[in-house]
Design goal:
The protein is mainly alpha-helical. Helix 6 packs antiparallel against helix 7.
């Protein structure tokens, strides 16, 4: 019988000084013994009878099956890892391309970025390229690059093939409403919403002069932009442009006596405005004046209070607040109060 200590010495190069290494080899032998015994049993049985041959064949089949499963798993992991790296590269490339398209002042960089987006299969890239087509201020070479990228995307990105072709046709025919309908149907009625979809709809409504609808969609884009992988930097300036247009529309309607329509424009333009913007546009004074014309004096008075709270203490706001305060006093039903109302409406 072999001495276990001598056996250990053989496996450690003839030295008995390393017990740790001896234990390691012993554990390895212990792990291998069942496999060796199983194979030996199968081999011995193969020489005895047919049943043993079948058992040995089963062991061999199981071993090959296990090796095949491990190999397939390794290939799957390798493939998924490579695919993940490829997707990261595409997202990174798309992010840089969109940034160049929207922020770069170099026309050459924009053209190269537009060409690069043709290799991506992403709705954000698709929407940015469509926005380039809609923009009449871009150069012809950039527009051509965008068209070619969209056509390439149409051939490869089968999910949006029909949509891309229809959008290109709508832009070429200057059919703004058709493009709006396509965008809403294919991007806004899905579970996932894109900041670029709302952004493009806002831009499209601005192009046809519908600033109320444009502001609504741009606000959607602003909210979605907070969690978007690719941020849009031009949303706030466009909302500010819409606000100015809405205030101007409200002023024109006010002058023609269309007070309810003017109120609608003022209210929409005033929504979510920063304090400095409220002061600059005289928001509360505009609203108070409209409410006075509509004889909603309590609402008008509240607007003057808000103006004073915002430190918008002009002669107009102070005088209007004082006049409305007197009209709300106990003498509100007297002839004097009626004279004040008439004077207020005249102003």
């Amino acid at each position: 019988m072999n001495n276990p200590i001598l056996l250990n010495c053989e496996f450690t190069g003839g030295s008995c000084g390393s017990r740790l290494k001896g234990r390691t080899y012993r554990k390895a032998l212990t792990a291998l013994l069942p496999v060796a015994a199983l194979l030996a049993t199968g081999d011995a049985s193969a020489t005895e009878n047919t049943a043993g041959t079948e058992a040995g064949g089963s062991v061999l089949f199981f071993t090959l099956f296990l090796l095949g499963a491990v190999g397939i798993s390794i290939l799957l992991i390798f493939g998924i890892t490579r695919w993940g790296h490829r997707q990261d590269q595409i997202r990174s490339m798309m992010s840089f391309s969109i940034k160049y398209l929207t922020e770069s002042i170099d026309e050459g960089e924009k053209i190269e970025a537009a060409r690069a987006l043709g290799d991506t299969h992403d709705p954000n890239a698709l929407l940015i390229l469509i926005d380039i087509l809609c923009n009449e201020e871009v150069g012809e070479e950039l527009r051509t690059a965008a068209v070619k990228s969209l056509q390439e995307m149409s051939r490869e990105y089968h999910q949006y093939t029909g949509v891309i072709d229809d959008c290109i046709k709508a832009v070429e025919e200057r059919n703004h409403q058709r493009l709006i309908d396509l965008l809403i149907e294919n991007f806004e009625q899905q579970k996932r919403k894109y900041a670029h979809s709302a952004f493009l709809l806002g831009r499209q409504y601005m192009r046809i002069g519908q600033y109320a609808d444009a502001r609504i969609w741009l606000q959607y884009a602003k909210v979605r932009n907070k969690t978007a992988l690719i941020r849009i930097s031009q949303i706030s300036p466009l909302i500010a442009a819409c606000n100015q247009q809405l205030f101007d529309e409200g002023d024109r309607l006010f002058k023609t006596g269309e007070y309810r329509d003017a109120l609608e424009r003022y209210a929409l333009a005033s929504h979510n405005l920063a304090l400095e913007e409220k002061r600059r546009h005289w928001t509360h004074i505009r609203l108070a004046s409209i409410y006075c014309k509509l004889k909603h004096y309590e609402d008008a008075y509240q607007e003057t209070l808000l103006a004073l709270e915002d430190n918008h203490k002009t002669d107009t706001s102070l005088n209007l607040n004082k006049m409305l305060h007197e009209m709300r006093s106990e003498t509100g039903d007297t002839d004097e109060a009626q004279v004040r109302r008439d004077r207020l409406e005249a102003e």
